[in-house]
């Protein structure tokens, strides 16, 4: 009978266990059942959109075999819960604190929200604690600062707020702590001096918060520190001299604060220091000579302060490992004799001294600098004298910036040896003589700016040999004669500024080659003749300035075609006659139209830009009338109006009859020609491979459109994997039969898309169009989409792979925007539309169905989709205007997503915060805090090789900067896709040249 009460007791225990599985177990002994309860409570509190826990955390297996769970061998107790990059949402259950044997808790890189449970501070064995890169909010529980077992803590990249424990808080006790990062949050208050109690601390990162007050001098007592990152806060006061006691320090980041005073000489005691960032503060005084003792410095940022004095002459001898020297925007004076010592720095890549007050002659020793030097930036100083010819020795130079100085003499012909130079900026100096024809040998040049000098002679014919030239500015010089015909062959030219010379002649027919010209400025010259109708073919122009010349004749009607992009048009101070074209009322993007001081006559067009007197200037044309708002007198009524009406009764009917007959004839002719084209659907040899596939073969190839072959489904189409009769594996995109507008436009769309060929666009192989189905047969991509590789568990792309993919995408869009016969706007770029072939080469897809536009605003379809939320440019929603700049915005968001691995639709981006705003907060000081952490693990250990993060960090910083430039809210401020391509390629080449793998 005693057995019955015992069984009843056991039964009651099991009932309680299952009825109250989420009740804290603090009151009873912790055991395996407690661990199981805690894990199930954790699972119940999180969102698991990919089912990574649902399919594995089941009763069929021991919890010690569950994903991310590791147990001790002897007791089978949970010692580690590591679920980084599991795409988990929801909140963290406080029951996790019942895992009393837990030593490693890593929930980083998810989308968890809510507070950090304070109970975690009671875990007695916790050594690693990482919740980085989530959306957690609220304060950091104070108990965490009293965990004697903690070794590594990362709560970076969240929305945490509140304060750190005060200096007088005795509970702050982390005796084993080695690594702590709280960067990229909203923490306020002061930085506690209690960190001085952490005698084992090696890395402390508090960047990108809102910490105020001064830097605690007690930090100088933490003698094991390797990295101290306090940048991008609101710190005030001076830099404590006690930091000079941190003899093991490798990296010190204090940039982006409000620090003042001098740079402490004690920093010269940091003999292992490699990275020093003191930029964007209010530091004064000179660069201390004692700092030269820190002989391992390779990266020095002092820009954006108020430093005075001269640059130490022995700088290069003292810092032989220097790679990056940025001292721009200070008040430094003195000479350039430090250039001599920099020849000792054989790894120097960046030398940035712009916007100082350096007054000296450029030394010949400039040519002795490292051949690895990529960027030499000395602009906006008081540098004088001639440019030394030895500069031609700098074979690795990519950017040369000597503008806004007092340079004189001639441009050295030795520049022609700089084969890799992409940008040469010598504007706003006193250079004289002719433009050397040898510059035409610089075939890698993208930008040449020589404006506002004293150059004379003619424009060298050889400049037409620089086929990749995009920007040419020779304005405000003394150049004469006509523009050489060779310039009109520069088909990639985007900006041409020849204003302020004495050039003459008229527009040649060859100007038609400049299809991608964005800015044409020819003002203040002696050009004459009619304004060529060829200008109307340059539909990319946003700025057109032909003022102060001798042009005559009428405004050509072909300028009607500029209405798509033109923002600024100035034809003033010429001899132009005739009337103002009525089409000028459609200049929707125009912010300035100046037609003043010409010989224009007749009525002013009504409406459009002419209703805004702040945009239009028409003075000096006495024969103009109308437009009372513009201050002109009304036009006189037309004379003999009744007589004219009487004549129309007799003249109009014959005219109408003739027009009708001509229309019938033309219509018949068009049908005849179309009939011929149907018989020969591929006049272009490049289209000979395209064939029409039968519906029967399509059904067989997809196994009757089986779900097993379904690759993906969207709002306008479904995609199936298909095996054609010839064995070719393809993807078949079947149009949604319910979308009638898309169905009606299919044939026209196929005709357009079949002519779009580029290695980075998904190729159309065939088509099927009948009453049953309308489908495109496309190139199959075996490696799926970028979406899959970024946001699915078990997939990973390294840094170089991601760069290559983005280069591929940019090349595709450069083609669509600039090299296809018509401008094609995609309008829905996102990771799922970037597909990867067997070689991981990226191909942009879905640039057809309901999203193809010819020109910057006209769709060839009657129904269009607005794009995808998060990637869609702001102006789509506010104005509905579609342009290439919208694609650039989407590309920028894609770029940010690719390297942060955060979707713009992530749960953390709600309310006022967006992906771009989140990244902007981190740039540039805390870029490594927001990028995908896996990118930092692939080849280097941040703590063991402190120089390696500089290489990765510079690359990622450049990529993030480019993403932000592409995704600006204002379309006018966004970079253009044809500028994106060379920048991405430059970033890639720079990374490869620095990477140990290369």
Automatic annotation (TrEMBL):
Transmembrane segments: 650-671
Signal peptide: 1-27
Domain Protein kinase: start-end pairs: 705-992
GO cellular component: plasma membrane
Keyword terms of this UniProt record: ATP-binding, Cell membrane, Glycoprotein, Kinase, Leucine-rich repeat, Membrane, Nucleotide-binding, Phosphoprotein, Receptor, Repeat, Serine/threonine-protein kinase, Signal, Transferase, Transmembrane, Transmembrane helix
Chief location of this protein within or outside the cell: membrane
UniProt entry tagged with the keyword Transmembrane helix: yes
Binding site for ATP: 733
Cited InterPro entries: Kinase-like_dom_sf, Leu-rich_rpt, Leu-rich_rpt_typical-subtyp, LRR_dom_sf, LRR_N_plant-typ, LRR_R13L4/SHOC2-like, Plant_LRR-RLKs, Prot_kinase_dom
Location within or outside the cell: Cell membrane
EC number(s) recorded for this UniProt protein: 2.7.11.1
Lipid bilayer topology: Single-pass membrane protein
Gene3D superfamilies in the record: Phosphorylase Kinase, domain 1, Ribonuclease Inhibitor, Transferase(Phosphotransferase) domain 1
Superkingdom per UniProt: Eukaryota
The protein's enzyme class: transferase
An annotated Gene Ontology molecular function: ATP binding
Catalytic activity: L-threonyl-[protein] + ATP = O-phospho-L-threonyl-[protein] + ADP + H(+); L-seryl-[protein] + ATP = O-phospho-L-seryl-[protein] + ADP + H(+)
Keyword Chloroplast: no
Family: Belongs to the protein kinase superfamily. Ser/Thr protein kinase family.
Name by which UniProt lists this protein: non-specific serine/threonine protein kinase
